[in-house]
Specification:
Layout (H helix, E strand, L loop, with lengths): L1 H9 L7 H5 L2 H13 L7 H7 L7 H13 L3 E4 L8 E4 L1 H15 L7
Antiparallel strand pairs: 1-2
Helix pairs in contact: 4-5
């Protein structure tokens, strides 16, 4: 079991989009939150930041991280019903990487839950 976990962690390479999130527990939590709530227009950037419970980085650091992920194409800004709310979702590439990672870690069915 530990060998599988080690291999799964090692499967994230430095060039993967996932690696930017995997470096910090808070960033990883953010990635999972965005993925789990990306079908709603009610959750904006600051809402995600407020939801984070693994506080290893400041609010402003996380805000800058999100802006950087928008700039590099990892997050896509989508329209919301409220113009002042900036809603993000995962890019197709990042979503595919995360799905593949979760499948390696937990099995095929886990990535869709």
């Amino acid at each position: 079991m530990l060998g599988k976990e080690i291999n799964t962690v090692r499967s994230i390479t430095h060039k993967d989009k996932l690696s930017k999130f995997y470096r910090s527990q808070t960033r990883w939590e953010l990635l999972l939150l965005v993925r789990s709530l990306q079908d709603t227009e009610e959750v904006g950037i600051w809402s995600y930041i407020e939801m984070l419970q693994t506080r290893t980085e400041s609010h402003m650091t996380m805000y800058q991280f999100i802006k950087d992920r928008i700039a590099d194409g990892s997050f896509i800004v989508v329209e919301s019903g409220k113009k002042s709310r900036k809603v993000v979702k995962l890019s197709d590439d990042l979503d595919q990487e995360l799905t593949a990672y979760l499948s390696r870690r937990y099995g095929q069915d886990a990535a869709s839950k």
